[in-house]
Amino acid sequence: MRTVYKVLAYIIAAEVAVQASFVVLANAGLDKWVAGGGVLDKAVMESDEFPFPEVIGIILHGVNGGMVIPALALLLLIVSFFAQVSGGVKFAAVVLLLVAVQITLGYAGHELPALGALHGLNALLLFTAALHTARRARPATAGTPAGTPTATSV
Amino acid sequence: MTRIRRLRIAGACAATLLIVAPAAWLWQASLLPPAYSVMDMGYADEGLRASAAPHGQHAHMRHGDGTRSVVDLVADPRREPDVDVTLTARKQRFRLASGREVDGYTLNGRSPGPPIQATAGQLVQVRLVNESVPDGVTLHWHGVDVPASQDGVAGVTQDAVGIGRDFTYRFVARQAGTFWYHSHQVSHAQVAGGLLGALIIQPAGRPEADVDVVALTHLYHGIRTLNGSESDVTVPAPPGTRVRVRVINTDNGPTSTWVSGTAPRLVAVDGTDLHGPTAIDHAAILVTAGGRADVEVTMPPDGTPVRVQIGGPLSVVLGGSAAAPVSARPATTLDLLTYGTPAAVGFDAARPDRTFRYEIGRRPGFLDGRPGLYWTVNGHLFPDVPMYVVAEGDVVRMTVVNGSGEVHPMHLHGHHAIVLARDGKAATGSPWWVDSLNVGDGESYDIAFVADNPGIWVDHCHNLPHAGEGLLAHLMYEGVTTPFLIGGPAGNSRE
Question: ipTM of this model?
Answer without folding.
Answer: 0.81
